[in-house]
Each structure stands twice: as C-alpha cells, then as structure tokens.
Specification:
Blueprint: H1 10-13, H2 18-21, E1 31-37, H3 45-61, E2 69-72, H4 113-121, E3 140-146, E4 149-150, E5 153-155, E6 160-162, H5 163-175, E7 181-187, E8 204-208, E9 217-222, E10 227-231, H6 232-244, H7 253-263, E11 270-273, H8 284-287, E12 306-308, H9 312-323, H10 327-359, H11 362-369, H12 378-391, H13 407-412, H14 418-431
Parallel strand pairs: 1-2, 1-3, 3-7, 7-8
Antiparallel strand pairs: 4-5, 5-6, 8-11, 9-10, 9-12
Helix pairs in contact: 3-6, 6-7, 9-10, 10-11, 10-14, 12-14
Length: 432
C-alpha cells in the first residue's frame, strides 16, 4: 500500500484528465514536483497539512499528473490518536479535508535526506514507491519543503539535510542538464541560510519563508484540534495562487514573491539564485496550466494568531496542561515542560560558553550574534552541528527551540577550524 493512503472518492475518479491541464507545446518538457513534509508528531500537524493542500491544488486545480508528483511525508497525522476526525487533515479552520486522495510515495522511516536527494536527482531507490524525478534538460522541477530548519540545516523526521549535501546535488543536476529550470519553495526557520550562495547561473531560484537569521511562523491555531493548521508564509502563497486561479499565466514568480513578502509580516520572505529568468516566468511554468475547478481549501486568517515555529512544541504542551483534568497527566506534562525549559537554558548557556572560550569574552559572543549569518564553510557547519547534537544530546526534531541559538556555532566556522570548534563543543557539552 506504499504509495496510496486513502481510497479515492468519486470526485477523484471523475477529475478531468491530466492532459487537459498539463498540455505542453512541442519541445516543451514536463513539470516534475517534489513535495516534502520533514516532521512528525501532532504539534507539527501544519507541515503535513501544508503539503497535502499543495498536492490537492496541483492535482485538482492545476492539472499536474499524479505520476509527475513525488510526495514524502511521515503520515502520522490523519490517523493520530490526537485526531478527533480520523482520516482527515485540514489546512484552514473548519476547512475541507486535504488528505483524501494524496498519494504518498515515501512515508515513515523512508522520509530521509538521502531519499529526498535520490528522488530529486532521479537515482534508483529501493525505498517507498521507488518513484523518482526522471527529468530531462527540457523539464522544469518545482520543489516544496515544509519543516523545521536551522543554520544550513533542513530537518527530516530522524535526521538532517545539510547545506553541503544539497549544494552538491543541485550542482550535479545542473552540470548534468537534468532540468531546464528549478523553483524551490522552503517553509522553515533560517531557510535562507541554505541558499545564500546559490549561483545565479544554475537556472535555480529559491523562495524561502525566512531569511538566514530568523524563525518562520506557524499560523491558524485550531483550539479543538489543539494544534496550528498551517504555516503563515505557506498559507499566504497558497492563498495568492488560489486567488488568481485559473489564470496562473497572469502572475510571475517574482510577482508572487513580492505579493507574499508583503503578506507575510511575521518573517522576511527571501529569494535567491536566478533572479532574472525564472523570476519572469509565469507561475504556470512550475505549477501547471490547469483550468480546473476553483476549489480553495485555505481561508483568510489573521497574522496576529501566529507563533515562532521554534516555540510551537512547548506552547502545545502548555495548552495541553491547561486543558487536562487528569492529575497524573498534569504532573507528567509539568515535568515535560520543565525538562524542555531546562534543556533550552542548557543549550543557550553551553553555546555561549563555547563562543566565549574561542573568542575570549562574553562581549565578543554578543557582538558575533549581531552579525548576519553567512555559511561560508558548509563542511565545518555540518561537522560542528553533528557534534553538538550528539554531545549535548539534543535534536531539532525533539527540541526545536535549540535553533534559536545554533547560529553562533555556524558563525564561529567563519573564524575557526572545524576541529577546534568540535573539540570545544565536546568539552562544554560533556562537562555539564
């Protein structure tokens, strides 16, 4: 059953043919799409919800054939024990279900950085449905990723994708003429840090929810489900796309970027890479020429009802504590919250200590924090982060709040060798 998670309803069987919406002129290539939700757990509901919504939009409204879309998501939300409506996922308050009919190619433990890179570059994989992007020099690729991120890191359920590995894959694909153009949308904290060095001549453009120095934000708290339904930037670009349906020829990639940047008041939407050619392409180049039904599944929402993605988990635990009537559960939740608060303090203190040791004083660390992040040495960044996660026993997936402090370590990589930082990290993590 890997590949399909739900029986199709009648409306799926009668959906208009793919050809109608994905007509390509002679010499035009195909549109390939890779959709990734990199998280798991009920409090991360919004990432899988965003991805399901995008899938429905591309299939139903934009006419992209299912066989051209590869979807990766953990798939622990629709039938989660916390879900009062089993088998459904919504992306808007009282919204319609976006889960039914989504074909998931890679789920559970198959949602890994390596599988993602293999899928994107069309390598053979034994995992999941084995579907990968079989693109040619005439094809375009649209990638959408939603999850937690850190400096030079995109998180997957049990591991991390580092900037260096993504860079190498994109360079290899560009040199091997594996696509004509690629558009990457990333909803994650510090998403900009993955692309600050993206060359303008690789025919790749990345549009991110945040710049290199900040969190992205969760939006639309559903009190009944006790979770956030979507991410602010993702909901904004989907709303914008649905508003211009079915005329996706009428807005360019850059126009969407400008509109969504203004709509997203919580973080600084940013754009990288090719800012001359791809940015002048109509959205239809990457999202399909469909003249499908206008069936908007998101709704207008208030930006005020938003929270830094890094704080969603502790916020969720505190809300659970407020709602619980069971004394045993309350004690357990209080302990969990306390453990996380202590872990956050420990991480903040440890990273400051590492910085002060290497730079000579706490003042120097504070000055470093004011410098904008640029990852010049991805290999150092990766080595230091891996050591920190292992030695200090914390992970972005389990402790998303730690990403508030990691940039100091990344910035140290622009000043010291990886070996020295790794050794210092080990010293302070193990000491405490």
């Amino acid at each position: 059953s890997s590949g399909i998670n739900a029986e199709y309803g009648d409306d799926w069987l009668t959906e208009y043919t793919a050809e109608e919406g994905n007509e390509r002129k002679a010499g035009e290539g195909k549109i390939w799409v890779v959709l990734v939700a990199g998280s798991s757990g009920w409090y991360n509901y919004r990432h899988q919800s965003d991805i399901c919504h995008i899938y429905q939009m591309l299939i139903r409204n934009h006419g992209i054939p299912r066989e051209n879309i590869v979807t990766m998501m953990y798939n622990d939300i629709a039938y989660n024990s916390d879900n009062p409506f089993p088998g459904t996922i919504i992306n808007a308050l009282h919204g319609s279900d976006v889960y039914e009919g989504v074909m998931i190619d890679y789920m559970g433990d198959d949602v890994t950085p390596q599988t993602f890179l293999d899928v994107l570059s069309g390598k053979y994989t034994e995992k999941g449905s084995r579907k990968t992007v079989k693109s040619t020099k005439d094809d375009v690729i649209f990638v959408n990723f939603a999850d937690h991120g850190g400096p030079g890191i995109l998180a997957f359920p049990h591991s991390e994708l580092y900037k260096g590995d993504l860079d190498r894959t994109l360079e290899m694909m560009s040199e091997g003429a594996r696509f004509k153009q690629m558009l990457i949308y990333v909803e994650a904290c510090y998403a900009g840090s993955m692309f600050t060095k993206l060359s303008a001549d690789m025919n790749i453009t990345a549009h991110t929810a945040s710049n290199s120095d900040e969190s992205s934000y969760a939006c639309v708290l559903d009190e009944d489900l006790n979770t956030y339904l979507g991410d602010c930037w993702s909901l904004n670009w989907m709303n914008n796309t649905e508003q211009i349906m079915p005329n996706l020829d009428s807005e360019t990639v850059m126009e969407q970027y400008d509109i969504v940047k203004k709509m997203t008041t919580t973080s600084h939407a940013s754009i990288y890479g090719d800012l001359t050619t791809i940015t002048n392409e109509p959205l239809s180049t990457f999202m399909g020429h469909g003249k499908g039904l206008k069936d908007a599944r998101a709704n207008e929402f208030q930006m005020e009802n938003s929270i830094q993605s890094q704080d969603v988990m502790i916020d969720w635990l505190r809300r659970k504590l407020r709602k619980t009537t069971d004394e045993g559960s309350a004690e357990e939740l209080k302990q969990q919250i306390k453990d996380h608060e202590n872990k956050e303090k420990f991480v903040m203190k440890t990273i400051d200590a590492v910085g002060a040791d290497l730079l000579g004083s706490p003042e120097a660390v504070n000055n470093l924090k004011k410098v904008s992040l640029a990852i010049r040495h991805p290999g150092c960044n990766e080595a230091v982060m891996k050591e920190f996660f292992a030695a200090c026993n914390c992970r972005i997936q389990d402790n998303p709040y730690i990403t508030k402090y990691l940039a100091t370590l990344s910035k140290l990589c622009n000043m010291f060798s990886a070996d020295i930082i790794v050794k210092t990290v080990g010293k302070y993590c193990y000491e405490q």
